Amino acid sequence: NTSNPPGNEKPAARFLGALCEAEGIEVEYIETAPEREVLVARLRGDSSKRPIMLCNHTDVVPVEEAYWTVPAFEGLVTDGRVYGRGAVDMKGCGVMQLIAFLLLKRQGIALKRDVVFCAVPDEEAGSDWGMVWLCENRPDVVDVEFELSEGGGGSTRFGREEAKLFSVATNEKDICWLRLTSIGRPGHGSVPHPDNSAVYLVQALNRLVAWERPLIFTPDTEAYLDRLSEAGLAPRGREEREERIRQSPEMQAMFINTLNLTMLNAGIKGNVIPAKSEAVIDCRLLPGESKQDWIRQVREVIADERVTVELYSPEHGEPARVPWDTELFRTINAVVKEAMEDAIVVPGMTIGGTDNRFLREKGIPAYGFIPCLLSPEERRGFHGNDEFLTVDNLQMGCELMYEIVRRMAG
Questions:
Q1: Strands 36-43 and 26-33, how do they pair?
Q2: Based on the number of CB atoms within 10 Å of its own CB, is 19 exposed (0-12), middle (13-18) or buried (19 or more)?
Q3: Phi, psi of 184 (to 5 degrees)
Q4: Residue by residue, what is the 3-state secondary structure of 112-171?
Q5: Looking at residues 304-310, what average pLDDT do you find?
Q6: Residues of the chain with pLDDT > 90: what percent?
Q7: Angle at 288 between CA 367 and CA 291, to 5 degrees
Q8: Which DSSP category does 286 fall into?
Q9: SS3 assignment, position 43
Q10: Which of 43, 262, 264, 367 is 20 to 30 A distant from 325 in Cα terms?
Q11: Is residue 257 within 8 Å of 285, Cβ to Cβ?
C-alpha cells in the first residue's frame, strides 16, 4: 500500500530493487524524504548512443475501500484479471518495464546505450519528492536521450467504433488549479441578506460553467487527427472535425482548456450566513497556454471583484513541446504494427499530468506509452474502484515493451 498521501514508497523501491540485485544489476536507492525513495537500476551500454530511461511511479491514489468489491492491495488474480490499486496507474506498466529490463540482462543483449530503470515516489501529489527532486538534486540520473513512462497507450475503441488505437503521448496539458474566494457579511440565516459570500461564489461558478470556449488546434493534435483520418476514424474537414470532437468529452479535453469544480466550502453553521466561501477548480491548460493569461480570462468571465482568483497548484513552469518524429516514436510504431497489422499509432496528448513534463523541460523526448489495449472498463480504473488489468494485457505489455527497448538499446 503506497497510497499518497502519505506515500511511504520505500518498501516498493526496495522490492523492485531486490529483483534487480538478484540478477547482478547495479542498483542505487536515493532517499528524498523519510520512507520515500527513488530506485535507480542501470544496465551499461557501450556509450555509442545516449541512455534511455524506463520510468514509473510507485505511489498510487488512495482507495475508498467501502466501494471496492475486491481487495485493493493484494494483487488478486481472478477471471483473467489482475485486481489492485495501481494495476493500470501505474504499477502494471512498471512491471512491463521491469520485465523488459531483466530480460535484457538475462539474455546478455549487447547494448549501445545505457538502459535506466527508475521508480520514483510522489507522482500522484505533484512530484516534489520524486521526479522534481531528482531533476533538481541528481541531474546525472535524468541525463538521458529518451524516456518512457505513462500518459498514453492502446485502446480497443475510438468513440463508438472498435479499433486498435495506440496513442503515444508526446505532450501533456498543464495543471492549473485555481482557488476562488468570496467575502461577504455574516448574519442570521432567518433574515433576508443581500451580502452573502456563498451566493457570490455560486454566481461566479455558474458563469464559468456556462463559458463557451473555442477549440484550439496544436501541431500535435493536428497530426493526431490527420493519422486518424488516414485510418478512416476521423473526418478531414475542419467543421466536421469540430463537430466530432465536441461529441466526446475525452477528445474535447485535447482541444480546450478545461475547468471542473472539485472542492467547495462555505459556512460554519446552518443558521449563519457565511462570511467567507471558497471553491477550487481543476483547470488543465493546453501546451503553450499561459497560466497568468488563463487567470485573467477567468477573472473577466466572473466579472465580480468580490470574488478573488489565485493559483492553488504547485508552480513548476509550463509544459514544453518535444518532437514526435524521433527514433523512439518510429520504433514504437514499427513494433506495434508488426505485432498487429491493423493497429493505428498516433502522436497524442495526455490530458492529465505526469512526470514526463519535468524531463520535457530539459528537451528530452519523454513519451507516455503503456503498450497494451485497454478496454473502456479498464480505462475507468484510473483513480477508480476495482482497478484491474487483464492478464492478456499484462502479457502483451511485457512483450511489446521488451521489443521496443531491445530495438532502441540493443
A1: antiparallel
A2: middle
A3: -130, -160
A4: CCCEEEEEECCHHHCCCCCHHHHHHHCCCCCCCCEEEEEEEEEEEEECCEEEEEEEEEEE
A5: 97
A6: 87
A7: 115
A8: P
A9: strand
A10: 43
A11: yes
Rg of the chain on CA atoms, in Å: 23
CA–CA separation, 56 and 101 (whole Å): 13
- pLDDT, tens only, 313-351: 777 767 777 888 999 999 999 999 999 999 999 998 898
Query: Cell 482568483 belongs to which residue?
Result: 309
Q: Does residue 84 sit in helix, strand or coil?
A: coil
Using the predicted structure, report yes or no on whether residue 154 has a pLDDT greater than 70: yes
Which pLDDT score is estimated for 317?
67
Q: Which residues contact 182 (CB under 8 A, 6 or more apart)?
A: 197, 198, 200, 201, 204, 276, 277, 278, 304, 306, 307, 308
What is the tens place of the pLDDT at every residue in 117-133? 999 999 999 899 999 99
Task: Identify the helix (H) or strand (E) that includes residue 40.
Answer: strand 36-43
Query: In the predicted model, is pLDDT for residue 184 greater than 70?
Result: yes
Helix axes 327-339, 391-409, angle to 10 degrees: 130
**CB-based burial label for 312 (10 Å; 0-12, 13-18, 19+):** middle
Which position has the grid cell 556509450? 47
**Averaged pLDDT, 224-241:** 91
Average pLDDT over the chain reads 95
d(CA 390, CA 388): 7
Model's pTM, two decimal places?
A: 0.89
